[in-house]
Specification:
With about 260 residues, this protein is α+β, with helices and mostly antiparallel strands. It is built from 13 helices and 5 strands. It has 2 domains: about 170 residues, Transcription factor LuxR-like, autoinducer-binding domain (Beta-Lactamase), CATH 3.30.450; about 70 residues, Winged helix-like DNA-binding domain superfamily/Winged helix DNA-binding domain (Arc Repressor Mutant, subunit A, Orthogonal Bundle), CATH 1.10.10.10. Strands 2-1-5-4-3 form a 5-stranded antiparallel β-sheet, sandwiched between helices.
Amino acid sequence: MDALFKELPLHQGLARMFGAVGEDGFWRALVDTLRLLVPLDNALVALMQAGRVPRLLVDFDYQSDGDEQEELADYSAGMYLLDPFYQAACAGIADGLHSLDSVAPDQFQQSEYYLSYFCKVVGGDELQFMVNVDGAVLGLSLGRSTRFSLEEQGRLLCVRDWVLSAMRRHLQLLPPAGPTVEPAAGDMATLFDRFDARLTTREIETARLILQGFSSKAIAQQMGISPETVKVHRRNLYHKLNVNGHGELFALVLQPR
């Protein structure tokens, strides 16, 4: 009986969540319910589709001490190109609860994107409930400063199927928003267009993988070339852009302000 009473808030939260499906309060009810299972610093809902800038639907920040709107504007302006979950959505990902470790490159946590942007906006770790809907991926991002333990991930896995079903049904029940044209997504080549550096296709691809957090060995595997050739592309890239390393490359390309 004691165990049942301990679970009562969760059951009440799930009832509120399902009662709000198709209504304005749905995402708040869902995130509040998930916070009964694991502590969260922030949550963000986005609709991701290959070739389109992610559509940010709603966000919750429980630890905000900065300009949240500016940070989200930076994301839409180009930071999304380095987001492992966006990349996974575009490449094709199954419905489920996905961890950062499962989608991120091998040296993501050493990347400048992670150190100077991700940690500030999302935190140290992220999980996402992701569901495929009408050719796009609806993602509910859960972020916080500390790592999610296996036990915490297990708690969320217990409600995964309910959460995914509710997310899918909520999107289906929303009234038509009218004709909208989502902006086309850019790519690394577009970002490099403003530099008269005459980068080759291979050098731009190397830059993209460096910025995403791939090691030289992983870049070689991705591109089907040797690690020595990767070093040549990296050296030529840095020389043409007059930068001395990964950090300066990130600042030049994605933080032009």
